[in-house]
Amino acid sequence: MDGSGTPASRLEAQFAFLNEADRLKSVLRATTLVDGSRVENSGEHSWHLALYALVLADHAAAGVDINRVIRMLLIHDLVEIDVGDVPIHSANGLAHGSATTMAAEQRAADRIFGLLPSDLRDDLRAMWQEFEAAETPDAIFAKSLDRVQPVMANLMSGGGTWTTYNVTADQLETRVGTKIARGAPALWDWVKVKAAAFFL
């Protein structure tokens, strides 16, 4: 749809996207709530990450635009509506970061962002791609928060998915720690001390 369409057609497209985004609340993740009572859904995860960005903004590198980071985090997992959650420590089904998973996510991004008027489609699709590439300061910090939030949930819930997937300290360091440290080194320094106690 063209961004210059009639107000009615533009609004129809905006609500079509928002109604589709509601489906993210039905996508269950591997990570539990911090109290361990149940798994979180991807809508809850996205909201929590936006709050992480707001509260932990002082850990961002100079020049990071926290408002952009929040926007990025609110949309970063919309592709899970089609693809589902692919746990970083899972060895079953689709592999996290594999070519198959990335291709499926690209198709999902085309479909979901394609519901929007063209100006919003292009803006949000580009922001999602920026997060995935994790090359800009904003995306690097956003990706760090996306990795640290499940770590905190696992710590608070007595191991959570680390126990489920038999995660080792080395796996946590290589799969998660390097990404956190890249964008928020002080956060990883603090978290890895807490995590070390679990892996003793």
TrEMBL record:
Highest taxon of source: Bacteria
Pfam families, per the entry: HD_3
Keywords: Hydrolase, Metal-binding
Domain HD: 21-188
Database matches in PANTHER family: 5'-DEOXYNUCLEOTIDASE HDDC2
Protein name, entry field: HD domain-containing protein
Species whose genome carries this gene: Pseudotabrizicola sediminis
